[in-house]
Design brief:
mainly alpha; 9 helices
Amino acid sequence: MVASGWMDMNQPARGVALMRTFVERSDASLDTLIQYAKILNRAGQNDDLARILARIGAFGTYTDVQKVDVRYLRASLASHRADDLRRRGKIEQARAVLKPVLAEYPDDTDMLMAMARVHEDAGEPDDARAIYLGILQRDPQNAAAKRALERLG
């Protein structure tokens, strides 16, 4: 896809602009919307991603591949939003963003990592450490969890 090529060349604005022309049509297919959402995610355009995910949600029925893509995009958006809130000191709001996703996908490593970062910033290193250790039990090679544990001491 040409839009992904622009993303690969570090030109996200061109990739987004190219896809936007296709998705502004009301008859855009679910696959087109998912591709656009992936590009928005890579470009870090979270507000637009949330809007497109709402449109995607209106379809209601997905293939197995589409389910995986939509799940990943929703989790990625939640992680980005939670990290943004956390960095701005809005710890409880960050927790509120992550909790429903973790309730649905309790073993999602990205969501667990995001929640551990929330615990760290909330001054709850023991809770963060427990999450990182749990991640390493499932994935002993997880470099981010290893670095986080080293940082916690």
